[in-house]
Write a structure and sequence with these properties.
By secondary structure, the chain is α+β, with helices and mostly antiparallel strands. Helices cover 33% and strands 23% of the residues. The protein is built from eight helices and eleven strands. The chain is globular. Pfam families: Leu_Phe_trans.
Length: 246
């Protein structure tokens, strides 16, 4: 039985999440509220919300956990060519936190193969925008000729980044944003990006699964450390492609 959380109830230990033999592996709890304070507490414990319109707020902590280690990020030959062009051509920009709610809405509205609807509801947008205003959520955006063509958003506490969603309106536009984020995290020696659940797309970029206990152990250390800065542009991509940003 998954516990129902009242507004002041604490989360149960993540070890109580449903196991692989259940119909919903990783499901930990349900609630009616999605307060920013609840979100902050959840991420610090290795828990995240994922649900659809018409459902209660469902809280998850899967085992194993999908992560991307910045040092293991895979840059394919074709992506490297794209990144070189982005660095070289003035039409391309990487912006940070230019319009966080717009990035969330774009992630919600962009069609995805094999997926009907979106889990990024209006309540989700409101809650994460509140985190953004508090400096705890960020967007990385790919722009070409003054138009936002891709991007991603996520949550960041201490020396940890929790990836949430990406979108692309042009080929590789979301990968450009992710590559810039990874390069920035490498510069600041951030060891791990939380990707939550396994997808073939993330695996192709170097993502891998680790035991939940290892993820939570790293998380406890990382969120207790001072935060890293959130100012960068496309020049960080030079670190990935081994060329000058000029």
């Amino acid at each position: 039985m998954v516990p129902w959380l009242a507004s002041d109830d604490p989360f149960p230990p993540v070890e109580r999440a449903l196991g692989a033999s259940s119909g919903a592996p990783g499901l930990l709890a349900a609630s009616a509220d999605l307060l920013p304070s609840r979100l902050v507490d959840a991420y610090g414990r290795g828990i995240f919300p994922w649900y659809s319109d018409g459902q209660p707020v469902l809280w998850w902590s899967p085992d194993p956990r999908m992560v991307l280690v910045p040092a293991e990020f895979k840059v394919s030959h074709s992506l490297k060519k794209t990144l070189k062009r982005v660095v070289r051509e003035p039409a391309w920009e990487v912006r940070v936190d230019d319009d966080f709610p717009a990035v969330m809405r774009a992630c919600a509205q962009t069609p995805r193969e094999g997926q009907r609807g979106t889990w990024i509801t209006a309540d989700i947008v409101d809650a994460y925008t509140s985190l953004h205003r508090a400096g705890k959520a960020h967007s990385v955006e790919t722009w070409r000729d003054g138009v936002r063509v891709g991007g991603l958003y996520g949550v960041s506490f201490g020396r940890m980044f929790f990836g949430e969603s990406m979108f692309a309106h042009e080929t590789d536009a979301s990968k450009i944003a992710l590559a810039a984020l990874v390069a920035h995290l490498r510069r600041h020696e951030i060891e791990m990006i939380d990707c939550q659940q396994n997808t073939s797309h993330l695996a192709s970029l170097g993502g891998r699964e680790i035991p939940r206990r290892a993820f939570v152990a790293h998380l406890r250390r990382a969120v207790a450390e001072p935060p890293f800065p959130w100012r960068f542009d496309k020049s960080v991509l030079a670190d990935l492609i081994g060329t000058s940003a000029r």
